[in-house]
Amino acid sequence: MKQNEYHNPVLLKETVDGLHIKENGIYVDVTFGGGGHSREIMSRLGPDGKLFAFDQDKDALNNAIDDERFTLINENFRYIKRFLRFHGIRKVDGILGDFGVSSHQFDVAERGFSTRFDGDLDMRMNQDGELSAYEVVNTYEEADLRNMFYLYGELKNAPKLARAIVAARETQPIKTSVALKETLMPFLPKHREHKALAQIYQAIRIEVNQEIEVLREFLLQTKELLNEGGRISLISYHSLEDRLVKRYIRNGMFEGEPEKDFFGNVEVPFKKVGKLVVPSQEEIEVNNRARSAKLRIAERTNMQ
What we know:
Shape: globular
Number of domains: 2
Strand order of the largest sheet: 3-2-1-4-5-7-6
Distance between the termini: 45 Å
Strand content: 5-15%
CATH superfamily of the largest domain: Vaccinia Virus protein VP39
Number of strands: 7
Structural class: alpha/beta
Number of helices: 13
Radius of gyration: 20 Å
Helix content: 40-55%
């Protein structure tokens, strides 16, 4: 499979431009996927530059770049600091993240990420992961399902959806995408069924892959890893992710406000670079999955 068939990189130039690449710098792409962003970074590196990439999905290993300056780490990027240290790296000059699901994961029916296909309820980004969508749908308590749909899917009818699942699985397990859709279809708003299903799938996927916890853990490590003047260039696809990224860049924390000194000044680890970047209409027409992308760029300050 060709790289561009695996995943069409979103905001390619803007995201890599945001890193302000130094020829001989050390960079990390925490969401390698098809390798589109990584290849663009590599094209800008000199002979002594290095790029480390992370992807927990074994399918992504087939896209590895054959270059001695490149290292692909088959792990979740929540462990970024640990595995960079394993490779002797303590500081880097830039970190790129393109969160969410790759085109490949959406397009392979048996991975269970898409509402378009019938397949087993899976949704694991790491195919060796213990928790799958099947376990979530068939073993979670009604209250846990309700909270999941409300928090991660932002669905107002979360209680009805949770009740419907619990009632249906008493007869037989809900094993496939079609079975889940048939269970929930009567409770979806008319003429907005597709959007509601996407939100339901998003909620289950986030739970299966612990995406919010992973993002928090990752962001907290970036301030330790980046050299002064180093940058993060991060693409989010839904408000939950984008809110975390935005707050962390602004405050260096996820809740509350940073403490002020005697003079009313605050010290935060990052300063925002430019404004929020979204795809052009031309890019969305070529790649519809870019439509909800939001890119935020920030630079590490000299805060200790």
